[in-house]
């Protein structure tokens, strides 16, 4: 007997949470919908280059996982994550100056989930978070869900301007200090060593945890690696990392490195969300690391991204009009463009799409909503020829609208 299914359900009358109703869609995701149209040169998203995904290596890892672990790899696993992977991550962190054990490591479904777990654990409505200005949009979205407020320090070429930080701490008593210290999203700027030390000193003085969101730190293709905030600050710092930008974003494996006592609280919060991150993918990442595949892969992507960044910078110098400035990152995926103050990158975006090129306008990255004249470009996901053509089109667009 067929089931009578109603088709006139009035879902608009269902009582959704005000938290959900007030959420705004990710502007980056919305722009990606537009820029995915055929023929559009996409300089917008945070996507790594798909042609560099280590497919053959991952195929070997997949077969090794099945052979070595069998049904275990397809079963539920610990909320903290697969022990072997946590041990491998802790060993690597210790080798970089952050003494760690598996008990400091919680595996997450990408670093974005780590941000969400922190927000859920720390933030009550009206609590302040101290950020850079601008800062990572995905973090703002996670914090906004819990009705956070913001106090922000401006940036220069050395990162967050520390001289502003203490006054803002005294005024707003923030629960957290959130930073993207290496090749920041969206600006590409890296915090200097001296600023790192100063930030840790202030965090220790006022007993505020630093959340160091560091998805790009391994993608340095120029200059010297700096000590991480975690290696400088120890338990003053909760470090967030991910394999999304260096192996595959689709596998959704990230982690946090945290003091043991607070990690137990994050574990309970994670149990409320997804029980645990994907078991099979964790074992695959472990095989990739333990078999020594990561280092040559990093060397490969760094060489490719440096070439593409250089193409973008050279083309910008040749075709962007006077009055337009930009950052020159030594790694990561992004650079940041500032147009003259009277121009709006958001209003120019439809014209850019008409010219078959896409970027992300900068205003959503500012907690207080300024930055109308700014935009972010990704140099990793397009071919050198498309980068040249896309930047030429943007140069003409900026010149015609100045």
List keywords for this structure.
eight-stranded mixed sheet; four-stranded antiparallel sheet; Aspartate Aminotransferase, domain 1; 402 residues; Aspartate Aminotransferase, domain 2; alpha/beta; 2 domains; 14 helices
Tell me what the structure shows.
- With 402 residues, the chain is an alpha/beta fold.
- The protein has 2 domains: 18-53 and 296-400, Aspartate Aminotransferase, domain 1 (Alpha-Beta Complex); 56-290, Type I PLP-dependent aspartate aminotransferase-like (Major domain) (Aspartate Aminotransferase, domain 2, 3-Layer(aba) Sandwich), CATH 3.40.640.
- The chain has 14 helices and 14 strands.
- The protein has helices at 18-21, 27-35, 55-69, 83-95, 110-122, 137-145, 165-172, 193-206, 229-233, 260-273, 279-290, 294-319, 345-354, 384-400; strands at residues 41-42, 105-108, 128-133, 149-156, 159-160, 176-179, 210-213, 237-242, 254-257, 325-326, 334-338, 357-358, 360-361, 374-378.
- An 8-stranded mixed sheet has the order 2-9-8-7-6-3-4-5, sandwiched between helices. Strands 10-11-14-13 form a 4-stranded antiparallel sheet.
- Helix 8 links the parallel strand 6 (176-179) and strand 7 (210-213).
- The mean pLDDT is 95.
Would you kindly provide a brief summary of this structure?
This protein has 402 residues and is an alpha/beta fold.
Strand content: 5-15%
| Mean model confidence by pLDDT | 95
CATH class of the largest domain: Alpha Beta
Q: What form results from the Cα inertia axes?
A: globular
Task: Give the radius of gyration.
Answer: 22 Å
What separation lies between the terminal Cα atoms?
68 Å
What pattern of helices and strands is seen along the backbone? HHEHHEHEHEEHEHEHEEHHHEEHEEEH
Helicity level: 40-55%
Q: Give start-end ranges of low-pLDDT stretches.
A: none
- Note the main sheet: 8 strands, mixed
What is the CATH architecture descriptor of the largest domain?
3-Layer(aba) Sandwich
Number of strands: 14
**CATH fold category name of the largest domain:** Aspartate Aminotransferase, domain 2
What is the spatial order of strands in the main beta sheet? 2-9-8-7-6-3-4-5
